[in-house]
Amino acid sequence: MPFLGISGMQYSGGSLAGARILLAEDSNVFTSMISTKLKELFDIDIEICRNFEELQFAYDKSSEPIRLAISNINLPGAEKGEALEYLIDLSIPTIVFTGTFQEGMRDALIAKDVVDYILKDNIFAVDLLAESICRFLTNHRHHVLIVDDSATARALLSSRLKRYNFRVSVAENGTKALEILKANRDIGLMVTDYNMPDIDGFELTRRIRASIGSHELRIIGVSSSTNRLLSARFLKAGGNDFILRPFIDEEFYCRVNQNLDTLLQIQSVRQVRLSA
């Protein structure tokens, strides 16, 4: 069944069955809605844990790895967030599904490197959760290149993308980026710094666009500069998007998703035209 997400994600790749997914949630309403939605859209059967004891038992009973967990912050037997801490300590990728949320809580969740957090405060909550799950389970199909001369910046962006289950390559300069792109034509997105010593982000983008169009590779520029005109210059050089540092995780992930969604839509249209 084709799936169109709230944010514009399109998926028609069929069943995602096979991945072991746990749902730590005590609400009968939400467990029923989530189970039904995931089965209907992606043929996914989830394991439901209604309290902390059941969650621990689910982990201990099988050696099969848990691909993803969806967890409420508070569960019976874990009213102070112990269930989430348990999943994080086990290095299980986790999407938080919660009805209570404050700014401080958001910062704490991001610091724990959760995959995503979904609020139960709107009628689209389950649809948003389904999209987040679908993205995580399919993001490994996307290969992203990070280009930055700062080792710290490369590590930060790389860890963010790997948290979301992307395949990631890194380059410390423009010359290396061109070599990696030549050897890996499956790269669909490049995130590049502007200020680099050998080839700056503008020149790198121009050179890439001489042989690789936006229908094959999306390019996002990033910079810590206060010059607001950099975005215009970057887009004129052939870039598709631009983000000023510092940016928050949600903004970065949204921009990545939007560019990859656009890439897939363009490629789908081109494929239809070529086969017509």
TrEMBL record:
Per the record, the GO terms for biological process are:
phosphorelay signal transduction system
Residues modified to 4-aspartylphosphate: D193
List the Pfam families: Response_reg
* PROSITE patterns in the record: RESPONSE_REGULATORY
| Domain of life assignment | Bacteria
* Record domain Response regulatory: where: 20-135, 143-260
Which first-to-last residue range defines the signal peptide?
none
Q: Which keywords does this chain's UniProt record carry?
A: Phosphoprotein, Transcription, Transcription regulation
Q: What is this protein called?
A: PleD family two-component response regulator
